[in-house]
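Subject: design request, 146 residues
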């Protein structure tokens, strides 16, 4: 897929996710997105803190997971992946995404959704820019559902 094709697919995917999340009736494929958002809200509520803004938490993580799904099924490069994650972070007002564990957790969720084998994760071309063991740990924990 060419660079412009990836960008168009990401834009459409992000729009679809944002359109589906507030809907009352979810299709089977969007239930996991809704469940992830609900779990995040419930977790924040149980902790006694106010839930973080939706854009900063669940929408952003869903967008990152969608990017990971897209790249898992393509021959995307490290540079393109990082550019797309950076753009998503910028749209959502997230500074320094490279240090934000939510990004790496969302990548793990996306890789699981894409059906990537756990042992293949360290060898994915688009993740070769991830050098921090803690980031790989966050990817692995989210992939495993922990």
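Subject: RE: design request

Done. Sequence follows.
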């Amino acid at each position: 897929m060419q660079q412009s094709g990836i960008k168009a697919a990401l834009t459409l995917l992000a729009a679809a996710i944002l359109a589906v999340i507030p809907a009352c009736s979810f299709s089977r494929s969007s239930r996991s997105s809704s469940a992830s958002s609900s779990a995040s809200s419930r977790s924040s509520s149980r902790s006694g803190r106010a839930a973080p803004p939706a854009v900063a938490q669940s929408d952003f993580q869903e967008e990152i997971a969608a990017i990971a799904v897209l790249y898992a099924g393509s021959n995307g490069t490290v540079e393109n992946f990082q550019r797309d994650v950076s753009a998503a972070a910028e749209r959502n007002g997230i500074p320094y995404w490279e240090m934000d564990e939510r990004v790496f957790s969302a990548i793990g969720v996306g890789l699981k959704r894409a059906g990537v084998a756990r042992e293949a994760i360290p060898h994915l071309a688009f993740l070769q820019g991830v050098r921090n063991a803690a980031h790989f740990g966050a990817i692995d924990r989210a992939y495993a559902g922990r």
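Residues 12-56 have pLDDT under 50 and may be disordered.
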